[in-house]
Specification:
homotetramer, alpha/beta, Rossmann fold, Dihydrodipicolinate Reductase, domain 2, 6-stranded mixed beta sheet, globular
């Protein structure tokens, strides 16, 4: 069993890490860290509001009982050498400071965007660009680290990248236009999305999101050669919005392919898509992509939990009427499972299997 | 004062007609008609549930007091010659039968889609394609009618067509890709959208909607010459979804223009857009298009009521990164004001002014 | 294995029966029946909308694969003697006609209210009034049936009755005042609650609900002697409302007890409450009542699924400041698990164990 | 015209004050104050997010144009002698410090609870306990102030107190039991209610709310004699919950009256209720209480805006079946109009008319 630390353990993403690592066959949570305010208290006490007695646990799954008594450390004082891997659930500002410190000695898998766009940092999605893991060696060389930093993609990128991959492989892609209807959980809890603002409403702007999705998609689907990633050449444009949904991002995707193809071809390559490198991993879905032929699917409430939140569900695959070789479809992807902590655990599993961790 | 009948008066669209015609300076509601079940009762009684006493009025505005005592007629027995114009709020199936019967003698303005796609039927949006009204004369000639049928566009088409019009005029359009997030009121009440289905959810399919929007947009922005409409040549593709919003359709629009232009150019032609033919009409908005520079706008709850629900609000105008000469923006349009009954009353006003009615 | 028929199998309650009976250790679904419209088709086909291809399955759990091919019978032609027990999920109007026909030969467990208030019909909640089952023998005698009808309580009654039981036993009850905030699923789907009506809203009236809860609570907690139920003497008053929640009824309960008691006493008798007759049944919760000390609990979204939806969760037990010996608390109970199909299956299990069925 | 300052002007309650005072016939907004962070900037700039350009205005009504250029002062440095009345929209902690400082020279009308429960402080509802205003003179004497502090009641108290008043006058009251379903706006915006927490949910606890409502109701309906308020003797018990509604508190009220009475009597005394002292005030509703006989009313979305949000709407008046001389009803009251800023402006109007201000 490898030992893991979860940094940012009291926040919602940190809690999701604990759920994702609960009863994990390869990894054991050995340390929890958070801000100074929580430090020195048992995890359970750190989550309990002193004034009201409320227990501030935000996952649908119960808090793993054995983790409640673990003492919370001050993240800036945590010794990274005591663990084999660090899951980082902290904000980007802090990540810029803390993650390099940890990475000097220990692998860091992060949900923060702080390092995503650096040349020597891959954005791994197991099953999509597993080969990019080799860039971690370049990173270690360049920075003189024993560990490394490997960040998750943005939660809106991941479902689109997963579903574009088999299209890209089979037919090539010229351009992608996407409009997202994103769940509130993507905004976290501080301040998060107010009920007053989202009730009976759509919020048409998520700061910085569109640029992230556009850039990350090209990087993730890029080739890897001579020690670096060569971003994919196709064009990407998106509009990202927030809707009154708790979990599960919905995306309307329009794709112009290089080679002409029919909706049935797209359905087939998506359904058949699978990466043998990922097949055996404990958190891997059986099917990366679930294609549903009911025209009223996918729906976030009904499909976000497909394969325990690790599959992307696709539906409404049909001809587009405006793009050359145009295809359009809808997808739903679980933004806080595959799109965050559980996806990061899957990355850890891939890196353990391939010898980068442990 | 012209005399109007509202057919389908007990349903939600019929009620919206009564609100739109309340205290109208040119038009007086002289007759109400509905199905046999309501016939013979005063309007107030027809809306009152006998078992529970509930008053089935669905508009935010109160029911106009003077209309409550009007007796409801059986629509299939109503004499159309007693009124100068008929507002039809019935389902398409019934519209196919009843509207031609009425149109033999009397102008019919309809929210049903039954006749929208026929060659001699315009889809009028005052301020956008007022000139298409001339097709009504061809219709009368071809069908031997004294009246005519002129249907409203689909509620999802209208906001997009209004905002594309100044772009089309100034820069030309090659293609349009649009994803809608539509309000529940667009689905009506029988059966409408169940709370169970839309809570915490997005419904990714609205039967027939996408085809309507694609076809209608080309027809509305088409030219009119030699007695017929020549649909615009640009390509249109959309994905239409339903979100948990009561009123106000939100649309993410991506446009490829013929001539290159900047977001500021688009904002300018939209803001300046105005049709002098429409300016004086009682229901016309002062501005057809409201451009809001706050990046978090438009939002359906905040912007649907702009100019009493008759303006389309646009925001987030920016460069598109996937289309040639690409521009993208968001819009909010009130689907049951400009997009239905009140929009139909505006059509009536245009046709009265231009001598087609009265 | 006993053979069961589910009547009303295509509706939402019928679907919930199939989920509740899926992989049941004692009962096997041998027949499905519905209206004439569905009759003659495989269950899967009966649920598939012919026009759109939509699959009309409404439970969160997937449709049990082995039931999809079962042919649906016409309920009015179904032979009740082919099964050992019938679960009836039909509307009250039909129940009045069909259930006696079935009961002539076969036990019927029903979610309809049609027979709830008849003298020789118990309203069973296993663990609360198991002894009332003996009334079924009187019913058989009186009506000359080999089978019987035993209806579930109203979904709003059940959580309150379960939590009042230990209070009643330990301290006696003078009066109960309750306000419910009920989930939309309680209204079913035809027509159900429209999203337009419940968004940003509370609906303060549910036809007939308050009278049902008041009457049923007294009957359920009544004594059984000399072949009949003697309704409990305490007074009950409620106000029933609908809120924008999918599943899980929330109730604010105010109780005046006979003997003085403290909140801690109430918590203790609730936590300790258990009926050994129910303990071994396959669908029985481990704890009938879960007491949560977090002051922000119970919440319907967080607590409705406690013990697979079969427990009632209680919180905020505190002194009441207006009633004599007043105690107040909140409860959440799953209206479509314990409160409907799964609760009916638990009744079946009790009756099997006690020899009334099979 | 009297000059007013609004303190806490950038927050949501402060904004509501500006809306309530917009075009007021007697009062002109002469000064705006907020925290140090906003001080020195024009009001418009203080509301504009520097990073994103978002305009942080939260009312449905537009921001009054003429107030946008008013410079915002630092509240702790504001000179109270420059204005005739101060509307305070600050948090209780700050109110404890700032309001006495202001009150030394100037009348303060506050939405904070800081001083509500002090002996020499009335909780005024014009039309209900206008006579309590005389206590302000005792307060001035006792504290040596030229001004005074008079706080609004809690937004949940006000609708109940208004509707209990005519019952109390006509029939006497023994006890009141109430369950509230409160709107999100009551929780403000920092942090307010998260969409993640309230979607598909009810939150059964609002810290401190129940105690406030219980105490304030007795104080408001208390008698005033010999220079002090004598709280009403009847008992009050409530359960306060939060539901997914933007504006408008819904309350289920159960009352035990001294004298027996029928629902029709209650409807009559409520409908007839009116205080001539209030009739002419600019913000006063024509009817304090609107009784709606539709059994599905009141609903917060439909009834919160009755009489511009200044009336309380009552429905479902019926016999209670558990209390002696029991009556039960539902009410909806606008928590941020009558229940906050606009209610405070009504208090100002009463105090101006009676010579306490100006």
């Amino acid at each position: 069993m490898l030992k893991a630390a979860v940094v940012g353990a009291t926040g919602i993403v940190g809690q999701q890490f604990l759920v994702a690592l609960h009863n994990h066959p390869w990894i054991k949570v050995a340390a929890l860290a958070a801000s100074e305010r929580s430090a020195g208290r048992a995890y359970k006490d750190a989550l309990t509001d002193e004034k009201t007695g409320a227990f501030r646990w935000f996952c649908d799954e119960p808090a793993p009982a054995q983790m409640l008594s673990i003492p919370v450390q001050n993240a800036i004082e945590m010794d990274p050498t005591k663990v084999d891997v660090i899951f980082s659930a902290i904000e980007s500002d802090q990540a810029k400071i803390l993650e390099p410190k940890f990475a000097a000695t220990t692998p860091v898998i992060s949900t923060a965007s702080a390092f995503r766009y650096e040349k020597d940092v891959p954005i791994l999605i197991p099953g999509v660009n597993s080969a990019h893991a080799a860039l971690l060696k370049e990173q270690q060389k360049a920075r003189g680290w024993k560990g490394f930093i490997t960040p998750d993609p943005n939660c809106t990128t991941i479902g689109m990248a997963v579903t574009l991959k088999p299209i890209f492989d089979a037919f090539g892609i010229r351009s992608v236009i996407m409009t997202s209807m994103q769940a509130m959980s993507g905004a976290g809890r501080s301040p998060g999305v107010l009920g007053l603002d989202i009730l009976d409403n759509v919020i048409p702007y998520i700061v910085g999101e569109e640029e992230k999705v556009q850039k990350e998609t090209q990087k993730i689907l890029g080739g890897f050669s001579r020690g670096s990633i060569h971003p994919a050449k196709f064009l990407v444009s998106c509009t990202c919005t927030r809707v009154n949904v708790r979990e599960g991002h919905t995306e309307a995707v329009f794709v112009s392919t290089e080679k002409s193809c029919e909706p049935a071809d797209i359905a087939r390559v998506m359904q058949d898509y699978n990466d043998p490198k990922v097949a055996g991993l404990p958190s891997a879905p059986k099917r990366m992509i679930v294609v549903n032929s009911d025209p009223f699917r996918p729906q976030p409430r009904l499909d976000r939990d497909a394969e325990n939140g690790m599959a992307t569900t696709v539906g409404r695959i049909r001809k587009d009427t405006a793009l050359e070789n145009g295809i359009k479809y809808m997808l739903v992807s679980h933004n806080t499972k595959m799109g965050a902590a559980k996806g990061a655990v899957l990355v850890a599993e891939l890196l353990i299997k391939d010898g980068y961790i442990g």
